[in-house]
């Protein structure tokens, strides 16, 4: 179990800078634990429904790249326009490992497409 969490954390860290990891350490750990609880069938039905909805939203988002919220793209959450550079009214992809972030109860999509359900 510890190795699994450690490997998740290492993969996750590749896409985030150190300050992001430090600032979000509780949410990151909670997301990884809930991801494992879901795999083990320990998440409640309500939690699983919300995690599934978050997954669906990310799946249709232009910032999703593989299992990552692409930190090299910016999105306007109103128009859904995507940019390769920072612009007013656009938010940057967070660089998070999505399968864990979606299962972190305290996490919020940087574009505000999901979050605050709990
Ligand atoms: S976290 Fe938000 S911005 Fe990132 S891929 Fe998911 S829906 Fe898109």
Fraction in helix: 40-55%
| Strand order, sheet with most strands | 4-3-5
Number of helices: 5
Unique ligands: iron/sulfur cluster
Which regions are unreliable across 5 or more consecutive residues at pLDDT < 50?
none
Give me some keywords for this one:
single chain; elongated; binds iron/sulfur cluster
Question: Would you kindly provide a written description of the structure presented here, covering whatever features stand out?
Answer:
The protein has five helices and five strands; from the N terminus they run H-H-H-H-E-E-E-E-E-H. It has one domain. It has helices at 2-14, 18-23, 25-39, 45-59, 98-101; strands spanning 64-65, 68-69, 74-75, 82-83, 91-92. It is mostly helical. Helix content is 45%, strand content 8%. The strands form two sheets. It has a three-stranded antiparallel β-sheet with strand order 4-3-5, with no helix packed on it. Strands 1-2 form a two-stranded antiparallel ribbon. Iron/sulfur cluster (SF4) binds at residues 57-58, 61, 63-64, 69, 93, 98, 109-111, 113.
How are the SSEs placed, and which strands pair?
Layout: H1 2-14, H2 18-23, H3 25-39, H4 45-59, E1 64-65, E2 68-69, E3 74-75, E4 82-83, E5 91-92, H5 98-101
Antiparallel strand pairs: 1-2, 3-4, 3-5
Bound molecules: iron/sulfur cluster.
Short description:
With 118 residues, the protein is mainly alpha-helical. Helix content is 45%, strand content 8%.
